[in-house]
């Protein structure tokens, strides 16, 4: 487990990378630390992820609304101030946002599935 000194994050200073979805795009601003990744992610209007993700995340909705869909058909609508959490390999999920959304996504070694 890593230790982190106090630091602030000015997301506007972190370079943006664009990731295409099946529809729309996601803009990531990523801070990578040892065993921990923190991202500010914006989905465009009509964004649909291009894959089913099995990675664990903590996803907090900063602004807007999105749907997290599981591969079993369940759908969860999350709006501003709502969060979901899942460990690695416990579900296949993908995101959809009709009108766009701003998210804070945290993942890392602490979300590895316990055997």
Automatic annotation (TrEMBL):
<dbReference type="InterPro" id="IPR011051">
    <property type="entry name" value="RmlC_Cupin_sf"/>
</dbReference>
<protein>
    <submittedName>
        <fullName>DHCW motif cupin fold protein</fullName>
    </submittedName>
</protein>
<dbReference type="InterPro" id="IPR047713">
    <property type="entry name" value="DHCW_cupin"/>
</dbReference>
